[in-house]
Amino acid sequence: MKSRIIPFILPLLALTLVFSSCEKKDTVPANEALTNITSQVVAASYLQILESAVVKAKLASTLEGAGPFTVFAPTDDAFSQSGITASTIESKSELELKSLLLYHVIPAKIMASEVPAGPNAKVQTAGGDSVFVTRNSSGVFVNGIKVIEADKQATNGVIHLLSKALIPPVGNLVEVAQANPDFSYLVAAVLRASTGATNVAQILSSGGPFTLFAPTNSAFMDAGFATINDINAADPDALTAILTYHVVPGRVFSSDLTNDATAATANGAKVTIGVSPSGATVKGKSNESASNITAANIMAINGVVHVIDKVLLPPGSITSQVVATSALSLLEAAVVKAELASTLDGAGPFTVFAPTDDAFIQSGITSSTIESKTKLELQSLLLYHVLPAQVMAADVPAGPNAKVITAGGDSVFVTSNSSGVYVNGISVIQADIEASNGVIHLLSKALIPAVGNLVEVAQANPDFSYLVAAVLRASTGATNVAGVLTSAGPFTLFAPTNSAFIDAGFATIDDINAADPDVLASILTYHVVAGRVFSSDLTNDATPATANGQTVTIGISGSGATVKGMANATASNITAANIMARNGVVHVIDKVLLPQ
Q1: Based on the domain organization, do 295 and 267 belong to the same domain?
Q2: Is residue 553 pLDDT above 60, yes or no?
Q3: What is the chain's percent helix, strand, coil content, to nearest 5?
Q4: Would the N or C end of the chain have less CB density within 10 A of its end CB?
Q5: Secondary structure, 3-state, 345-406
Q6: C-alpha distances in angstroms, 261 versus 277, 287, 336, 439?
Q7: How far apart are CA 576 and CA 435, in angstroms?
Q8: CA-wise closest residue to 501 among 488, 529, 520
Q9: Which residues contact 217 (CB under 8 A, 6 or more apart)?
């Protein structure tokens, strides 16, 4: 630092201005000529501490020079807010004061309107360090500190008044913590964590930049670490998970914080920011209440520190998140009986599509159902809801439905559209619930694995016995309908119930078995659409082509979805949707569709 300062000030050290002989004024009268920066400081009664610092640092003549300079000038209140008083100035050496003051000086003229809007722009000070300036709707900021009055013109530059002093960094983030006795527990935690799988100290000493929300000693005590010995006895990897939850990539100054913003942390989870007239807060996923940011914008060479009064608690594992969520009691019971709790506590990452209790019940699965199933049956059901990777809602592609492999080796199909995110056509009602080892998305219904191809799905449901009979009878004619519906596909089958066939004139299965196979084939292929068309893909007035070459018309309204045949007087209601088959998907309808 000294080597950078001396070339800048050496030619001017012989000249000093005797400030004490000047009478202070708050403003320059209109009939007086514009003066240099030193004279402006002398004239302002609210810059007395700055004046005394400039005098002791022998920088008065420097700031009278040709410049141009930009001086970020802390008022007397600003210095006091930063813990710097007249006594502090008196106690510091000339070189210490030069380092402090030149951190407030830019060797160029920068008007407020020339400060770029975020992100924070790096500029070099007269002392060779860097400060970060930005402008937003709230004003101009330097290292996150507000300019309270801008563009005070001088003959050799401009002065901007600051609400606090700029304090040069004392080192990297670890060194900043080591320099503050109220961070001794934090330092101990960093060192202990670094004995595990992740060298946290090395990360916080690296180039960065990072933003560190730094809990005080009291915050660690309140979190259950009564002494530093308790920290030194803690699991290093558990400490790592906590500490990296306090680190956000990049320099995020207090001026960058916005209410309800979520910031991604170094451990992959998010914290929530709160901003109100009473100050700023940050809340961890597992914290009951937010932590206050009690001091902000402490500079480090590789980032910035905000002091907080609570330890931020990251989200627990997927298992612990399920256990902690009252709406997932059926899922919890299933996970326990299936002996998958330890799996979902593992490293992951996982994505769990989690049916709520209502979703399970909507799908016919109750606590009694879970109790009646074997461990293997429950494992098959549950692993159909788990992906062996983390997939956030924003990662889900817009249609067509993307095929992904579940942890059980089956396939599910995900898509996003203007209405939300869907899995096998079932809506995600709450997305992106963070866990330490992945993410949870809440579903409106359970995902039911396919029991076979389209024919086998129909055969497994007693309400499709007329449909099965029709498929078999039609297959005795020119078209092997059963062969089509058991082929690779994929297909979408609008499947009429037994009642629908009866209403269409087939009073008994004998009537179906007596029907013309080719007529039945023409009707049945009119119920088949190429591709997997989930309920989430249906749009009002759409006319998809069917396997017999004609079209059906889709209807979407607040009461549900319908499908209408060209010769039907009224539309058929889709009474159940998105029943999975290995080679397609089934939608149950209450009328037989009639082609022309």
Answers
A1: yes
A2: yes
A3: 35, 25, 40
A4: C
A5: HCCCCEEEEEECHHHHHHCCCCHHHHHHCCHHHHHHHHHCCEECCCCCHHHCCECCCEEEEC
A6: 16, 16, 35, 19
A7: 33
A8: 520
A9: 182, 183, 184, 185, 186
Looking at the fold, whether 382 and 280 belong to one and the same domain comes out as no
Element (H, E) at 267: none
User: Tokens representing 11?
Assistant: 């030619």
Q: Which of 189, 241, 197, 231 shows the shortest CA–CA distance to 214?
A: 189
Side chain identity, residue 132: F
Residue 31 corresponds to which tokens in the numbers above?
């009939």
> What residues does 154 pair with on adjacent strands?
157
Domain boundary among 264, 290, 308: 308
167, part of any domain: no
- The residue among 220, 194, 421 whose CA lies nearest residue 310 is 220
DSSP string, 83-141: T--HHHHHHS-HHHHHHHHHTTEESS---GGGSPBSSPEEEE-TTS-EEEEEEETTEEE
Residue 490: asked if its preceding bond is cis (omega within 30°), the reply is yes
Q: Please provide residue 139's backbone torsions phi and psi, each rounded to the nearest 5 degrees.
A: 135, -160
Whole-number pLDDT of residue 33? 65
Residue 510: its H or E element: helix 509-513
pTM: 0.70
Alpha carbon distance 590, 468 (integer Å) = 16
The pLDDT of residue 556 is: 96
For residue 525, report the phi and psi dihedrals to the nearest 5 degrees.
Answer: -70, -15
- Domain boundary residue among 274, 308, 342? 308
Nearest Cα neighbor of 419 from 331, 327, 534, 328 is: 534
pLDDT score recorded for residue 290: 96
CA distances (Å), origin 492, targets 414, 428, 481, 577, 593: 16, 22, 14, 11, 14
CATH value at residue 402:
2.30.180.10
What Cα–Cα distance (Å) separates residue 230 from each residue in 162, 315, 418?
A: 42, 22, 50
Q: Which domain holds residue 501?
A: 454-589
Which tokens is 210 given? 């990072």
| Burial of 325 from C-beta contacts in 10 A (0-12 / 13-18 / 19+) | middle
Rounded Cα distance, 238 and 223, in Å: 14
- pLDDT for residue 267: 87
Q: Show Cβ contacts of residue 583 under 8 Å, excluding neighbours closer than 6 positions.
A: 453, 454, 485, 486, 487, 488, 489, 490, 491
pLDDT tens digits, residue range 279-332? 999 999 889 999 999 999 999 999 999 999 999 999 889 999 999 899 999 999
The position carrying tokens 């020079």 is: 65
Q: Quick check: 42 pLDDT over 90? A: yes
Q: How confident is the model at residue 119 (pLDDT cuts 50, 70, 90)?
A: confident
